[in-house]
Each structure stands twice: as structure tokens, then as C-alpha cells.
Task: structure prediction
Amino acid sequence: MTVVEETVEQTAPVPAPVVTESAGLPDRPRRIGGPTRSGVLSLIGAAVSGFCLTVLLFGELASFSGALGFTVTAYLAFLAVYAVLTGLEEDGQAVRDRVMTVVLWTAATLLFSGLVLVIGFTAWRGHEALPYGNFFTQDMQEAGPLDPITRGGIAHAMLGTLIMIAIALSITVPLGLACAVYLNQIPGRFSRFVRTIVEAMTALPSIVAGLMVYATWILILGMPKSGLAAAFAISVMMLPIVIRAADVVLRLVPGTLTEAAEALGAPRWRTVWHVVLPTARSGLATAVILGTARGIGETSPVLLTAGFTAALNTDPTSGPMISLPLAVFNFVKSPQPAMIARGFGAAAVLMALVLVLFAIARVIGGRGPGHQNRRQARRTARASRRDVDRFAQLHAPGLMLFDATSPHAPSAKPSGSSIEEDPGPKPGETD
Result:
């Protein structure tokens, strides 16, 4: 090869890279969630296919009958057809994921439908009594089963429920949270024993709790039936629920938070009070709500320990007292339409009362850890500004000056200070 040919070969132009049509298009993120056209069409096609297959099976091929069997068969056929249609485009893992998503959505829909049905049916049956003002302000002392709804009410049951649940909460919340903190912070054999007892008490029948309080408080100690005795029985039912739920919530607090607090020199009680409990405050509020929902709906302990009355009683230490669940039980067992309407109205009031208590607990509990509302954010900002001012004052030059007469005065003179030190008396001189 000559020198000229070698030079021409070295200076030959390099071919440009091939540019495809999609090179100039912007990158688009791949969609990994949400409904797609093919997914919606697969759901609709599977639902129609499952329904038609069930109609053919029940009407022509087999002698099946019954609405429940038809519904179950149609749903199973729908799942099978949907799995087949999804398998035409996706792999096995995606098919299982799609089918389980449909099953979970179905379960959630059934639960929500049941909740709406219960609330709607109770409110619809109780709408005859709810519009009347006397239903909330009067008791049943001067009203009988044959009286119209315009006479009598549930004021005695509402007040009794509020008094009983307030006393039960004042007993349950401190004891339950203290026991949960003990189980979480002090592990050992005794804590395992206490946790086992608490788990066993969660399945305790309510009638047993009522009998225990009736035997000890009324028979042995000779106390009368009262709202206080009913509150004790309700506390026995609420306590294991609160302890168990609070223990689970406290276990979710990261251990690094307590380790950091103890590394800074904080004692155990201060760590629990300022770190553990504020972090789990939202979950602890949920634990209290669960215990309240369990105790506010009890009937048999109240009947055993507080008795029954149709009059308003504001003293929880003496005299019989009635709660809303017990009033509902006595109202609906009557054959009179007015009494049944009062029973469903009392049940609607009970659900509203539980909703109000739930809202109050959520407001007190606040949001989860790391999430602050506006009021908490402003309070945190004010605390941060106070800390900044305090640190600035600690590092100010004026704080380096001490009184010369102080026994803790520094031996070295601060730099830049205009205060002259007293050399003191010379040898041989007197003050």
C-alpha cells in the first residue's frame, strides 16, 4: 500500500450513526398502575361471560336453583374467565396479581355495602322518632307502651351511657396505657405472663365480667346497683382491648428514636414520655377508640350491675341506671310500633354518639408520626425560634464576663474585655 492510499484511507469520512424515528421523541414513563383499556374490557367481558355461563348452567345443563348458589357460581365463573383473558396478555405473576386485586376489591365492596345497609336501615326505621324534640329531652317515667312517640324519650339512657363510659375511660386509659408501656419497655418473664393474661382476657364473655363485678361489688361488699358498678364491669371489658392494641402500636415505634434519646442522657421515663408516647399518639388514640366501641355497646353487664329504670338518674353511685344498648333491647322487644320506633331511634343515636367519640379521639390523637397539621407546624416553628434565640444568648460575648467576686470566676481574662482585674494587695500591704 502506497503512502497516498494510506492517507486517503485515514481521512475517509466515518459513517454517521443510524437515527431511528423514535430518537427524537421524549421519554415517557411506563404506566404501572391504574385502570387500562384492556383491563376494563377484560373485566366487562369476564362479568358478561360468567353471568351467561351461570344462566346456561342453572337453566339448561343442571337442575340448580337458589339465589345464593347462582351468585357464588357466577362470581367463580367470572374469576375463571378473567384469569384466562388476562393470561392472554400477561405472565402468571401478573394474572395472580390481577385476580387477587379483584377479590380484594370485592371483599371491600361487600364490607362497605354491609356497613351502609346497617346504618341506612337503622336510620330509616328510627326516622319516626328522631324528628321529635321530646325524644332527646324526656325519659320514659311518665310514658307507657301505648303512648305515642310525642311522649317520652331516651334522655335517661343517653345520660347513663355518657356517665358510664366516662368513668370507664377514666379507669381504662391510664391503666391500659401504663400496662402497655410496661410490656413494651420492661421485657421479662412477668411481662410475658401479663401479655398472655391480656390476650386471654380479650375473649372474655361480657356476662362473666358482669357476674364478677356483681359478686364482688354488690354481694360481698353490699353496695347497691349503680352506674359505678356498671362502669367497673365495662372497664373489665375495655381494659384488655386497650392494652393489646396499645402494645402493638408501641412496638412499631422505631428503636433508633429511644436509642438516640438515651444516648443524649435522657432517663427511661423521660424517653417514654417525650419520645415514645408522642410518636405513637395516633395509634394510641385508635386503641382507645377500639376499647370504647367495645364497652359502649355492652348490655348484659349493665343489666346485672346497674339494673333497669325508666327515670333519669344523674348519681352514678346510687340507684339503678340504664344505658342506650339496654334501652334499645327493652324497646324493640315490645310489639308496639311506637316502642319499636323508639328502639331504632335510640340505636341511631348510639351510632351517632360513637361517631362523635371517634372524631374527638382522632382530633386528640392527631396525625401519624412525621405528619403535622397547621397548628402543630406553627407550634414547632415557634419552639425552633425560641431555641435559636436561646442558643444565641448562650454564645453571646457578654455571657463570657463573670463577677470577680464569684468563686466560679474564670482565671483567664476574656479576649477583648475592657474590665481590668484587681491585682490585690501587695506583699506587706494591708487592706
